[in-house]
Design a protein that fits this description.
Blueprint lengths: L4 H23 L9 E7 L2 E7 L8 H19 L7 H7 L6 E2 L2 H16 L9 H6 L14 H10 L5 E4 L4 E4 L12 H15 L5 E5 L2 E5 L8 E6 L8 E7 L2 E7 L4 E4 L2 E4 L2 E2 L4 E2 L4 E8 L2 H25 L3 E8 L2 E6 L1 H4 L5
Antiparallel strand pairs: 1-2, 2-6, 3-5, 4-5, 6-7, 7-10, 8-9, 10-15, 11-12, 13-14, 15-16, 16-17
Helix pairs in contact: 2-7, 4-8, 7-8
The protein binds adenosine monophosphate (AMP) and magnesium ion (MG).
Magnesium ion binds next to strand 10 and helix 8.
Length: about 350
């Protein structure tokens, strides 16, 4: 789930820019700088920012920040594929096809991932890792040339969410084939955002915004005592412009796109999002997908899934399931907005 090298730097830059816009849009001018609190840091190969209108009496910002770091650490211990000791890394390394006991957190994320795989007809597939690696977007780093069809077909034979199973009690996951491995990069950030939000609510905080690697969740009102307003970026590689500002109340927003994380080789552009049905990086005109949902985990996975499906099939699925989605589609130098009726209520007039 962590990113490395150039990818990580690009991702961090993207997030910084997004946070800049976000804060610009969300909190300026604040009711009084002394009353707004921001906790920042890095985790899961990216950065996070948590903005609170105020702290409850008796709770110090440092204490709260330490608790949040604990939540992020726990998520890494469960699901990081860059931490050899994590639950998921041990599951991936194991050749056993028996049930493998996991935490409630890992069980929740794998169960939701499988649900999104089914509703997207396999466009979202957390077993796609071997194909991601082949195209040079995995832990092994960039490869010099595009893989051959033979190697892609061989990798495709190794993958498939239908060979991954989850059970509730006791929480466990199981693979039918020893070589199957799981990468939760497309969904775990959203899960962590939900867990942080739950913790803040438990601490009696009602007005907050949590953002991790571009996935975010807003509750109550901003320090200005207005609903939170957050910016969706124009999906260009330089990317400092705002495409759309939306109003979020007790909702999550996740965005997936290939506009920063891609590679160019011999003039061809390769996205880091792979279509598991073909084994190739997505190559349609969709530049980004933003999803608003009650759950950040679900929004995160849906954004990735719809990015794979593309503008036509993605819109069909979004409309079928009543999802709140904004698609930004490349039309020459411009971006055309395609959205579902459910998305419209979040737009700022
Ligand atoms: P996101 O940034 O949430 O859209 O997630 C993108 C990450 O998910 C990539 O960097 C890959 O590690 C992983 N990924 C790529 N393609 C898929 C896919 N089809 N289904 C699930 N995860 C994917
Ligand atoms: Mg995602």
């Amino acid at each position: 789930m962590a990113l490395h090298g150039a990818q990580a730097r690009a991702q961090r830059r993207r997030v910084r820019l997004q946070v800049g816009l976000l804060l610009l849009a969300a909190c300026a001018p604040p009711a009084g700088p002394e009353s707004a609190i921001e906790l920042r840091g890095s985790s899961m190969g990216t950065t996070y920012s948590i903005v609170l209108a105020s702290l409850p009496k008796g709770l110090a910002a440092d204490t709260l920040h330490a608790e949040i770091r604990g939540i992020l650490e726990a998520a890494n211990d469960q699901m990081s594929t860059y931490r050899a000791s994590s639950e998921l890394s041990r599951f991936n390394a194991s050749s056993s096809t028996d049930w493998f006991r996991v935490s409630e957190g890992t069980r929740t994320v794998v169960a939701e991932a499988l649900r999104i795989s089914r509703l997207s007809g396999g466009a979202f597939d957390v077993t796609v890792g071997p194909v991601v690696d082949l195209w040079g977007f995995g832990a092994a780093g960039p490869s010099a040339v595009a893989p051959t069809r033979e190697r892609i077909d061989a990798a495709l034979r190794e993958i498939g969410y239908a060979s991954l199973h989850v059970r509730s009690s006791p929480p466990a996951i199981r693979k039918e084939r020893p070589e199957l491995r799981v990468d939760l990069s497309g969904i775990a950030k959203g899960f962590a955002v939900d867990r942080i939000a739950r913790h803040l609510e438990g601490a009696g905080i009602r007005n907050f915004l949590v953002e991790l690697g571009g996935e975010l969740r807003a509750h109550g009102s901003s320090p200005r005592e207005d609903p939170w307003r957050v910016a969706i970026e124009k999906p260009s590689p330089q990317g400092t412009a705002i495409q759309q500002v939306i109003r979020l109340e007790n909702r999550a927003l996740a965005t997936s796109g290939d506009y920063r994380r891609y590679r160019v080789e011999n003039g061809a552009r390769y996205s880091h999002i792979i279509d598991p049905r073909t084994g190739s990086p997505v190559s349609h005109a969709l530049a980004s997908v933003s999803v608003v949902d009650a759950s950040a985990m679900r929004a995160d996975a849906l954004a990735t899934a719809l990015m794979v499906l593309g503008p036509a099939e993605g819109l069909r699925v979004a409309e079928r399931d009543g999802l709140a989605v904004l698609f930004l589609v490349k039309r020459g130098e411009r971006f055309a907005e395609v959205s579902t009726p459910e998305f419209e209520r979040y737009r700022l007039e």
